[in-house]
Write a structure and sequence with these properties.
about 260 residues; alpha+beta; Creatine Amidinohydrolase; 5-stranded antiparallel sheet; about 30% helix; globular; binds 2-amino-4-trifluoromethylsulfanyl-butyric acid; binds cobalt (II) ion
């Protein structure tokens, strides 16, 4: 499938989808508490998504059974919510959510610190977020896709972190996953040329230890091979002639978000 350029009408719908998802994350993030099960997080997340009149895009996607991917500590992504796992003080909890709004997808992830987390965990969360914004410096029409990948990966690796290579970001639009694939580490090829109207979901997954990951027996949950902590940060963006539009931030986040 070719990389598509969205029309202004499509971008308008994707802006709406993105703003809704930003608010879903903001509402759900505030409800995270010690003692909650990951299934309760999923149920609440789905309720919030539906309160905006949207469909949770992950639910039943390739058989994934929930609306919110909840990945705790050494879980990298695609954790399956369960009533058997309760959030504990000091956990880091990644929430990955997708919504469909009037036929258009948005996709975003945040890693939250619950209670008192270690200094290393807090830094991992902050630097994973920052790696996304390092990538944004190159997410401009005329640059090449893998300049984004290299900026993310080089920044994360400068701290000695393991940058997950087995999973990528992706184009997004009328489908959750569209071309191109967007790696989070330096490539030998420069990738496609970025053009205005491309909509991309960029999602660094960064580990404190090894970059290697393994799939659990449920065929979904991805964990770090060395069981070190992992963080995830993702937004849906639009390429423009200038700074990219980041669709999945709340108005408050945009107001507070200053980057070069
Ligand atoms: N952000 C993830 C991705 O782009 C979420 C997909 S989870 C799934 O792959 F359940 F939908 F597969
Ligand atoms: Co994604």
């Amino acid at each position: 499938m070719a990389v598509t350029i969205k029309s202004e009408r499509e971008l308008e719908l994707m802006r709406e989808a993105g703003k809704i998802l930003a608010n879903v994350h903001s509402q759900l993030g505030k409800e995270l508490k010690v003692g909650m099960t990951t299934l309760e997080i999923d149920r609440l997340g789905e309720e919030i998504i539906r309160s905006f009149g949207c469909i949770p895009s992950f639910k039943n996607y390739n058989g994934y059974p929930a609306s919110v991917c909840v990945s705790v500590n050494e879980e990298v992504v695609h954790g399956i919510p369960t009533n058997k796992r309760r959030i504990q003080d000091g956990d880091i909890v990644s929430l990955d959510i997708g919504v469909i709004h009037r036929g258009y997808h948005s996709d975003a992830a945040r890693t939250h610190a619950v209670g008192e987390v270690s200094k290393e965990a807090q830094l991992l969360i902050e630097r994973t977020r920052q790696s996304f914004f390092e990538g944004m410096k190159y997410a401009v029409a005329g640059h090449h896709l893998h300049e984004i990948s290299a900026a993310i990966g080089d920044y994360a690796e400068s701290f000695g972190y393991g940058v997950v290579e087995d999973l990528c970001g992706h184009g997004i639009g009328t489908h959750l996953h569209e071309d191109p694939e967007i790696p989070n580490f330096r490539q030998f090829r420069r990738g496609i040329k970025l053009r205005p109207g491309m909509t991309l979901a960029i999602e660094p997954m960064i580990n404190i230890g090894t970059a290697d990951v393994v799939w659990m027996d449920d065929d979904w949950t991805v964990v770090t091979e060395d069981m070190s902590l992992s963080a995830h940060y993702e937004n849906t963006i639009v390429i423009t002639e200038g700074k990219p539009e980041i669709l999945t931030l709340t108005d408050e986040e945009i107001a507070a978000c200053i980057w070069e």
